[in-house]
Amino acid sequence: MKFFVDTADIDAIRELNDLGMVDGVTTNPSIIAKSGRDILEVTKEICDLVSGPVSAEVVALDAEGMIAEGRKLAKIADNIAVKVPLTWAGLNACNVLTNEGNMVNVTLCFSANQALLAAKAGATFISPFIGRLDDINLDGLELISDIRDIYDNYGYETQILAASIRSANHMSDCAKIGADVATAPPAVIKKMADHVLTDKGLAAFVEDAKKANITIL
Ligand code: E4P
Fold this sequence. Notes:
Elements: E1 2-6, H1 10-18, E2 24-26, H2 29-35, H3 39-49, E3 54-57, H4 63-74, E4 80-85, H5 88-99, E5 103-109, H6 112-120, E6 125-128, H7 130-135, H8 140-154, E7 159-162, H9 168-177, E8 181-184, H10 186-191, H11 196-211
Parallel strand pairs: 1-2, 1-8, 2-3, 3-4, 4-5, 5-6, 6-7, 7-8
Helix pairs in contact: 1-3, 4-5, 6-8, 8-9
The structure holds erythose-4-phosphate.
């Protein structure tokens, strides 16, 4: 499973990228607003840092506006994936931008039907939002599983990009189901390394090494 980082925090992206943990980056208008930076400037900086796809989201609501914004975003770098919302206008923009040779990430997906339409529109990525479904007592992971089945049934090449990930468990659950990509905030990716038994075991090893005066260098 590929790991995308869901942030516009350059330092956080750099840290994970240097460790080889970053296959791409996702942003959205809320993430860009949080960065306090100009969308074109911060997105260019991310694209220069990371070689994989960098999702940059349009803000227009009509297809024509999304297409114009998408074309401008795509000019930032070769690794831009234009992100459009899963509305009828967004699907229209996805189709046009895909046919022009751009990567397109269709976002705000909350149902299998929406994912089916995105694949028909030629999306490179479909972004089902797990956490936001869980927030309203629906099953986000079940949606990922349904989309996996549907795409496999018909050989759709659209990649399932599990988004709105809130916990480390979501990451392994998505990997078990067969999501192609999961995008998560840096803190969630780092949390994947934690285990209480690792901490406990390490504390015992440190104590024993001290007692036995074990030194290596
Ligand atoms: C990524 O593409 C999504 O925009 C992001 O994962 C949404 O996450 P949130 O539901 O935590 O805002």
